[in-house]
Amino acid sequence: MSPATREPTMKPGSKDQYDAPAKEGASENDDGRLLGQIAAAAVSLMTSMGRREADGGAPPGRTSPLLEQVLDSTAEVESFLTEQSVRIAYLENLTLTDELTGLRNRRGFDEHLHRTLASAKRYGDDGVLVFCDLDAFKDINDTHGHHVGDIVLRHVARVIEAQVRETDIVARFGGDEFAILMVQTNWRDGLKRAQMLSQVMNRTIVTHEGHKIPISASFGVEPFGPSDEADHLVARADMAMYVNKRKKASVKLNAAAE
């Protein structure tokens, strides 16, 4: 599945290039504007010199040394601008990506949520927001260690990605909580897909060094439409998830009492 609708041009979480921090001083945008002005000036100069050569300023079939320098400099500027553009896109993607799971982080999710709701308001689209919170995740960390907890979180991320569409947005919302934004989906279909995800998740077992770790998760499902605001929608989905979590805890307590 693609961190949208998967639009990143570079693999989320990849660190195999451009690790050096940006230089201090002028911002990347300032650099880009300046280099753009240089390139425009070079093109203007090339055009002017081309006219002069056409009027007999240089022998036929030959380019003047100055024009050759301008051509070389322009090519270097264009190459640098391309490299900077790729570098900026990579760094921006890092700020929107959860390092552990490779999913979008809270910031990346919030950006998509606001864009999705703006589109819903404009075009009348519907959708569904799903919250997923792992049950007793603290017990996993306490029993097996945080490194195993990290393995579980990565595994859960892959399970979610395998169950949603490529157009859906998946994020690690924080800690052991995940969010799925199902775009252009009606309530009935969104609820059905969330229920299927819940069934798959609650049958999932992570095996590590001979230990079988069963996964349990609570879900909250909320529809959204043209009139919804991001903060209110997130609060409703969060509340629905915790209501379901409390119900599961109550069932376990009643079963234990019997």
Dominant shape: elongated
Helix content: 55-70%
Q: What topology, given as strand order, has the largest sheet? A: 2-3-1-6
Q: Got a strand count?
A: 6
Identify the CATH homologous superfamily of the largest domain.
Reverse transcriptase/Diguanylate cyclase domain
3D architecture notes:
There is one protein chain. Helix content is 57%, strand content 14%. By secondary structure, it is α+β, with helices and mostly antiparallel strands. The chain folds into 2 domains: 68 residues; 152 residues, Alpha-Beta Plaits (2-Layer Sandwich). The strands form 2 sheets. A 4-stranded antiparallel β-sheet has the order 2-3-1-6, with helices on both faces. A two-stranded antiparallel sheet has the order 4-5. A hairpin with a 2-residue loop joins β2 and β3. α1 runs antiparallel to α2, α4 packs across α5 and α5 runs antiparallel to α6. The longest helix is centred in the N-terminal third of the chain and has 31 residues. The N terminus and C terminus are likely disordered.
